[in-house]
Automatic annotation (TrEMBL):
Job description of the protein: Transmembrane reductase that uses ascorbate as an electron donor in the cytoplasm and transfers electrons across membranes to reduce iron cations Fe(3+) into Fe(2+) in the lumen of the late endosome and lysosome. Reduced iron can then be extruded from the late endosome and lysosome to the cytoplasm by divalent metal-specific transporters. It is therefore most probably involved in endosomal and lysosomal cellular iron homeostasis.
Listed name of the protein: Lysosomal membrane ascorbate-dependent ferrireductase CYB561A3
Source organism of this protein record: Piprites chloris (Wing-barred manakin)
Record bears the keyword Oxidoreductase: yes
Gene Ontology cellular component list: late endosome membrane; lysosomal membrane
Lineage: Eukaryota, Metazoa, Chordata, Craniata, Vertebrata
Length: 245
């Protein structure tokens, strides 16, 4: 009885959880924007350091928050009945929006590096980030071909669906790892000569470290929501599913 009561207490409905997660995602976007505006000098397109500041903002917004929203579309109970196509379009559209923001974020950092003579793709953060983006692009293209094109056979969808779900969670966690490592790398580069060193934990370091923890929390909660059995969409062959392909 105690076990059943504890289980009931932990069985949080999806809508309030989704509202909390959405607020957390918006907070991450607000904090990374505030960091770049207040401590890193704001934003510009002149190729200088303010051009670089678009990189963390666009990456956190696209690769983490918007991608996380796309991953959770099918956890909304309203998607469990009725036509699938509108929800497929929403899922694919959110993912495409995330990809566009990510590409713009990459363009910002490459422009900054090229304008200042800084080598590209030498750090672990850059390798992990570019690898995540390439995997993301393959995931979107394969998902579009398997689930949105009308001539894709049903057997192909059934085979590819668990692979799509697995790589969806994998890409999100790689995105979180890339963003957190990027924040840490930026602090190491910026907080040294002429500033309070990172090891002395100035206010900027506390702020950015907190941002990294919140991004990590967002990613963990999204993956947890994707893995929760009671929030999963019923299989198409079950009695609870009445969707039209």
């Amino acid at each position: 009885r105690c076990h059943q009561r504890s289980k009931a207490m932990l069985d949080v409905p999806f809508p309030p959880f989704c509202a909390f997660l959405g607020s957390l995602g918006l907070l991450c976007v607000a904090l990374v924007s505030a960091w770049c505006q207040h401590w890193r000098g704001g934003f510009s397109l002149d190729g200088g350091s303010r051009t670089f500041n678009w990189h963390p903002v666009l990456m956190v917004t696209g690769l983490v928050v918007l991608y996380g929203a796309a991953a959770l579309v099918y956890r909304v109970p309203n998607t469990w009945s009725g036509p699938k196509l509108p929800w497929k379009l929403l899922h694919g559209g959110l993912a495409l929006g995330a990809f566009v923001l990510t590409v713009l974020g990459l363009a910002a950092v490459f422009r900054f590096h090229n304008a200042n003579g800084t080598p590209n793709m030498y750090s672990l953060h850059s390798w992990m980030g570019l690898g995540t983006v390439l995997l993301f692009s393959c995931q979107w293209a394969a998902g579009f071909g398997a689930f949105l094109l009308p001539w894709a056979p049903s057997w192909l969808r059934q085979i590819y669906k668990p692979i799509h779900v697995f790589f969806g969670s994998t890409i999100l966690m790689l995105s979180v790892a890339s963003c957190v490592s990027g924040i840490n790398e930026k602090l190491f580069f910026s907080l040294k000569n002429g500033t309070t060193q990172y090891k002395l934990l100035p206010a900027e370091a506390v702020f950015a470290n907190t941002l990294g923890i919140l991004i990590l929390l967002f990613g963990v909660l999204v993956v947890g929501a994707l893995a929760r059995p009671s929030w999963k969409r019923p299989d198409s062959g079950s009695l609870d599913s009445h969707q039209v392909l």
